[in-house]
Amino acid sequence: MTCVWFRATLHLCRLRLASGCGTRRKYDLFSPPVQNGARERTLSALRAVAGDEGVCVGAALREQHGRDESVHRCRPPDVVVFPRCVEEVSALAKICHHHRLPIIPFGTGTGLEGGVGALKGGVCFSLRKMDQVLDLHQEDFDVTVEPGVTRKGLNSYLRDTGLWFPVDPGADASLCGMAATSASGTNAVRYGTMRENVLNLEVVLADGTVFCTAGRGRRPRKTSAGYNLTNLFVGSEGTLGLLTKATLRLYGLPESTVSAVCSFPSVQAAVDSTVQVLQAGVPIARIEFLDDVMIDACNRFNSLSYPIMPTLFLEFHGSSRSLEEQVTITEEITRENSGSDFSWAEDEETRAQLWKARHDAWYAALALRPGCKAYSTDVCVPLSRLPQIIVETKQDLITNNLTGPIAGHVGDGNFHCIMVLNPEDPEEVKRVHEFTERLARRALAMDGTCTGEHGVGLGKRALLREELGPLAMEVMQGLKATLDPKNLMNPGKVL
Ligand SMILES: *[C@@H]1O[C@H](CO)[C@@H](O)[C@H](O)[C@H]1NC(C)=O
Ligand SMILES: *[C@@H]1O[C@H](CO)[C@@H](O)[C@H](O)[C@H]1NC(C)=O
């Protein structure tokens, strides 16, 4: 096998020399017509590993795997493979490595920063066929899943156990995809983001090496054994390796849950309340901010009738006694900040309706301007800076006549402007682009970050440099060069 590959590569080199294309981009194995023979041989090697059904070159399927839910344009890979187990992932990676083909991991395609586009062609690894929940340790509150398991899939698997996995980015994303982007969402204020909830990862490197970041099978609640490689791979966005297994922390389902909605006379009052609730040590499960434009959009989209004012959606988890205490303190605080009385959602149906309104924010925003596209900004700042940045950002939106309802995980200092724009209008696209850069720089100036939970992907690489500075970037590049010296893992992203 190796021999055939070696010959194919030699043959390819000769072809390159003969056609004078040695200086062209180096990933041209798949560009017809010159290397048709090599292309066919590579495809049959991939097929020998993943089976005929596991290797697809159809245009529609490639396009489906060349984009996520962002506005970044589709960049289809040359081929999509569907491995069924880690051995296949490793064998396929070896083939790619041998031929210097880019490797792009793909979960559910629900990312928001263009992370899956095949900028330099190559092989997309769709991991959705690996969808088994492997080891559930109820008594230890942890579980190990394959990369195709989604968060909703895991929670329905856990249904009768009294346990759940709380990280909830909205979309029904795959858990390894969520680990790769360091996703979070509305529950993070209480339960943390993916960073706090991954205990171990099985990783396949670009050359096919398989290893576990915390040692095979290990899942202690704490450790001080060496560097934290798990954390290195959380948020690496497919640029260091493929995640083929994740061991995750689980939580006991709360005994009771109650949600409430509260409106405020100003953004400042809503955010001040959030800060004070957290300072008072209330273990609030969710505290979500919606500005007047966002709540108006949600009202229209879901036929609701909340007052069109800055609003907080809150949720409390705990025993009934603890709930009572949490709610009393929170009500005192919101009242002091001129908040309205709470409108309660106690039964499951009303609660589901309330959080559906929050989760539909994206579609509600889009419905403000039918036919337009949406782009979500994603900055995060220290809590105390939140009122100022939101107030300045709203002013910026108005001054520049932009539609950008604001929804935020304010308990974490993280908020989104859902920019609704006409992608056919270059002048508007430019204004939105300039606005988002100003917003990111405003966050950096306030000691914050250009991305709280969506990742760097394609569009935020320059901002990442500004955020970290050249020395930290050099360290990152050094790590990348060690783990992926041929720069095959999701090239063109993050760094
Ligand atoms: C290592 O990183 C993982 C993933 O971010 C995290 O869950 C874990 O708590 C960290 N371990 C230690 C000992 O800090
Ligand atoms: C503001 O933008 C809208 C489109 O979103 C446009 O119809 C309107 O004319 C603009 N107003 C001004 C003052 O530019």
TrEMBL record:
Domain FAD-binding PCMH-type: 72-253
Superkingdom in the source lineage: Eukaryota
Cofactor(s) the protein needs: FAD
Predominant location category: mitochondrion
Family annotation (Gene3D superfamilies): 3.30.465.10, 3.30.70.2740, Vanillyl-alcohol Oxidase, Chain A, domain 4
Pfam families: FAD-oxidase_C, FAD_binding_4
Localization per record: Mitochondrion
Keyword terms: FAD, Flavoprotein, Mitochondrion, Oxidoreductase, Signal, Transit peptide
Enzyme Commission identifier(s): 1.1.2.4
Gene Ontology molecular function: any one: FAD binding
Signal sequence, renumbered to the chain: 1-20
PROSITE patterns in the record: FAD_PCMH (PS51387)
Family indicated by similarity: Belongs to the FAD-binding oxidoreductase/transferase type 4 family.
Biological role: Involved in D-lactate, but not L-lactate catabolic process.
Name used for this protein in its record: Probable D-lactate dehydrogenase, mitochondrial
Organism (species): Electrophorus electricus (Electric eel)
Record gene name: LDHD
